[in-house]
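Model it.
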Amino acid sequence: MLSLYNKTNFECSKLITQNYSTSFSMGIRLFSKELRNPIYAIYGFVRFADEIVDTFHDYDKVELIKEFRTETFKAIFKGISLNPVLHSFQLVVNEFNIDHELIVAFLDSMEMDLEKKTYENSNQYNQYIYGSAEVVGLMCLQVFCKNDKELYQSLVPSARSLGAAFQKVNFLRDMSSDYNEKGRVYFPGIDFNNFDNSAKEKIISEIKLDFEFALSGINQLPKGAKNGVHLAYIYYLNLFKKIEKSTIQEILNERIRVNNGKKMYLMANVIVRNYLNSF
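Modeled.
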């Protein structure tokens, strides 16, 4: 039965999300039921692509990402795949008419990670952020808007800002591991060994603007999506504030985290606040 096959594939994407990210798993739980599987499918897809470039060091990553790209579009055009991640993803792409250009931009950014270790200018940096983060938010937005093109277009700018904010926070959080383990520095013009408060404050100011602009869009999201996205926003905002208070040495030598207890508190707080505001 095809319905059983589809259900099993979505369960695989859900398991991937739960194993790789407690934060996103918590956020997805706050989506209305019909939105959860599609978002699991998108996360599973982007997670596995990211694994190719960041984890599979003993294999030919260039060949693997090329095959992954080919198999992705083969699954989309055929409407089926024996790869559970790609099958569940293609179901979502085809149901919600996700723009193929978003998928191409995402895969292009993954390939950039195989080639580039530093970003010398803002154009390269912005291109990478768009492909690695903003387009993922736009894929999710197309699911949230359920083919309402007018609503989608009105929310594109704020969705891009939210994706950019999340990614820049990730860059700061992972600055040590990105440099020491992968030799990467994403922020243009930043020398890891001479990173100082002036450089930090410039990045912090940029992220604050992204967060501020993103919030207006979250408030306009459909009811079934708003709580989950709001939780992700609150979680990343708390992580951002923790990084902002951290010293340069802490940023350069450790991975700043929000512990699971705090995450649970934030989730409960979002649920209560949104429940009270609904009356």
